[in-house]
Amino acid sequence: MDTIVSSSNQPALFSRSINLRIVSPIKSDDKSRNVYVTVEFQTGSSMQTEFILKLTDEDDPFFLYELHLNVDDFKNLKRDQGVLVDFNAFPQHVIDYLKLCIRDQHNETTPSNGSRFQLQLVNDEQQFTNQTHLRVVEISSFKHLTHLSLLVTSANDHEIKNYLARRLQSKTTDYNQLSNDFEKLKRELESTQLDLKEKTANFQKLKLEWDSNNNQIVGRHMQELAEEKEKALQ
Amino acid sequence: MDTIVSSSNQPALFSRSINLRIVSPIKSDDKSRNVYVTVEFQTGSSMQTEFILKLTDEDDPFFLYELHLNVDDFKNLKRDQGVLVDFNAFPQHVIDYLKLCIRDQHNETTPSNGSRFQLQLVNDEQQFTNQTHLRVVEISSFKHLTHLSLLVTSANDHEIKNYLARRLQSKTTDYNQLSNDFEKLKRELESTQLDLKEKTANFQKLKLEWDSNNNQIVGRHMQELAEEKEKALQ
């Protein structure tokens, strides 16, 4: 899955399917969908290390949200949300949160004496800014507690175009690989079928040979027996 | 291939790989590449019939040129290029030209007593309009004769995005189909291998049985022979 959303040669730190709750403050009907969340931490051509988070959907080619965070952006996030860890430690903390969301994603109800984690995509439409945040929310019987809120942006046509080209390339590579494997398997099947045919033919042939051989032995013995009987009569 | 570039459910009239000559009036080094040319003639949601021509490249996801021609556009083309046929007959004439280009695409030289057809993509960069024309050109030893010149437009990000989504969908469908076929073939191979193993085991088993049976027959006859000899001695 990594190759689908990864724009570099470095492998993603994390790429898993997670149930995402789509929350709209002005609409009461929340929806949820399974999306792929990919976390990368990489040094680009500008030699600047970036924390990159992507939301994609296998079934919806136009669903693509991204967050690119460099060390300066992170300073703001650290201040605004009271984060204590440094930039290098940040990706693993995000991944740990995502794993908590995966752990709890099939719990529809909150345990009475505990809490559950949920990943939410929140459209702040009421603020007229049309900003979208990805939130890790802990739901207890007491309240909704936002542990982390990351501003993500919906990709534009140009970005989706590039993303789809990578997905297409990846799918084409997979297809060609499978096609090769298929041909290999086909040849193996043909060869095995030929072996089976040969074995069956040999089986029949040998059976005939044994029958004929058997008749010969019986014939020879009958003859020897007759000769012996004749000798005895003389 | 149709599904890759077709935006409707109606099948394309024509979809073939053709060697396309990329001609730039200001650059002397012409290049050529194999592209897919797709011709559609369809009635869209606006109930207006359109002649649609698309140029795509399997290996270059961002290569997409399009021409959409309705009956009014066609009137201009008819007047400008002295075309005599009507709108409904136009697609077949274009297709016939494309087939001539395919027929001649491996002829590098012009026959001395004849001519050859070539499909060209011409960037009119020198006119500062940056227009691109798809031209069907007949090359004889005398001159280059343009039979048809169609103004095509390079697709923008939004169009390429939609085109790639369709290609991805099509490739995914193909992949899933192949994956099913692969699993089917795998089961068939496993079953055939099992048959072969069984047949080999039966073969060995029967061989042992025949050997033992044979020994029994020989043994019995030796005994009968001995008994007969003994009788003769008495």
TrEMBL record, chains A, B:
Chief location: cytoplasm
GO biological process per UniProt: centriole replication
Protein name stated in the entry: Spindle assembly abnormal protein 6 N-terminal domain-containing protein
Lineage, uppermost ranks: Eukaryota, Metazoa, Spiralia, Gnathifera, Rotifera
Transmembrane segments: none
PANTHER family per UniProt: SPINDLE ASSEMBLY ABNORMAL PROTEIN 6 HOMOLOG
Localization per Swiss-Prot or TrEMBL: Cytoplasm, Cytoskeleton, Microtubule organizing center, Centrosome
GO cellular-component term (any): centrosome
Keywords per UniProt: Cell cycle, Coiled coil, Cytoplasm, Cytoskeleton
Classification via Pfam families: SAS-6_N
Domain of life of the organism encoding this protein: Eukaryota
